Amino acid sequence: MQFIKSIFSPILATMKFIQEHFKAMIFLLIVFLIFAPTSNKDLTPNNLQQINLFGPIMEVSEVVAQIDEAAKNNSIKGILLNVDSPGGAVAPSIEIAYAIKRAKELKPVVVYASGTIASGSYYASIWANEIIANPGSMVGSIGVIMQGADVSELMSKVGIKSQSVQAGKYKKVGATDREWTEYEKNELNKVIYGTYDLFTSDVANARGLDIKKRDSFANAHIFTAHQAKDVGLIDTIGVAYDAKNRLSELSGVAQPKWNEEDKFDKLMKKISAQTAVTLHTYFPSLVLK
User: N or C terminus: which one in the chain shows less Cβ crowding within 10 Å?
Assistant: First the structure.
């Protein structure tokens, strides 16, 4: 009897393991079926890379890293930057602009304005080989702004007074507890116009425009796609299909293979969308903004 048990012990141990971990094995099988390649085509590396620049520009390390990695990857023959952003901080916008400039030295880069390409997001895009804008996109707003609130009246009403100790005449420039003085406004204007000169000069150099005529393409003008083309801010008007085809042409790629969205991210977005529909169905007045 002991001999028989020893013979069947591996089988019995396997069955015991399956019984104890059945749910975990089913879960792993589902995960594998979701994320496993569906065909041999999925195993083929992409030769064109789309990178998205959406929303306000504040923290851009991930976007810059994606651009740099695509530029260094010999399998990728061209980069498409899909932009829908109202702009943002100056320094991060310049980080993206210089990443595009570096990439352009190695392979074609096309920017596609799928929505808004304005202010900082336009700055980020200027060094691309071409800028293609959706017919319904908004372009431009080449300007610089710095603003702050004067809450002194509110502070007075609630009985709050501010106090500070500082060294340097301009240390409290931009303070919100009082109205700005003329010399403080002049100090801020020095920074604003210095940055504006940098912005417009880079746009003129990158786009081949006359800096002496910057009021026609800058000055915070907001343009439609057609108007932007007339003043030289974009090259072509088209949709995503056109932008992708143009990059394929510039890259010399006969059979384009684009990077696909991560399957896990796609799954999470799908779940989020289904949840939002459910919430709207049962709680129609609930809106998340």
Answer: C
State how far the Cα of 114 lies from the Cα of 112, in Å rounded to an integer. Answer: 6
CATH fold label, 40-141+221-258 = 2-enoyl-CoA Hydratase; Chain A, domain 1 (3.90.226)
Q: Taking the complete model, does pTM exceed 0.85, yes or no?
A: no
Structure letter (DSSP) for residue 130: E
Q: Centre a 10 Å sphere on the Cβ of residue 268 and count the other Cβ atoms it contains.
A: 11
Q: Say if CB 59 and CB 75 are below 8 A apart.
A: no
Rounded Cα–Cα distance for residues 217 and 206 (Å): 13
Please classify residue 91 by burial: count the beta carbons closer than 10 Å to its beta carbon, then call 0-12 exposed, 13-18 middle and 19+ buried: exposed
CB atoms inside a 10 Å sphere around CB 172: 15
| Domain chopping of the chain, boundaries | 2-36, 40-141+221-258, 143-209
Active site residues: 119, 171
> How many other C-beta atoms lie within 10 A of the C-beta of residue 31?
11
Q: Which helix (H) or strand (E) holds 19?
A: helix 2-20
Going from the first residue of the chain to its last (289 residues), give the mean pLDDT of each consecutive group of 10, the final group possibly shorter: 58 64 65 55 78 95 97 96 96 97 98 97 98 97 91 89 89 88 92 95 97 96 97 98 97 91 52 44 35
Distance from C-alpha of 143 to C-alpha of 196, rounded to nearest angstrom: 6
Do residues 220 and 159 make contact, with C-beta atoms less than 8 angstroms apart?
no
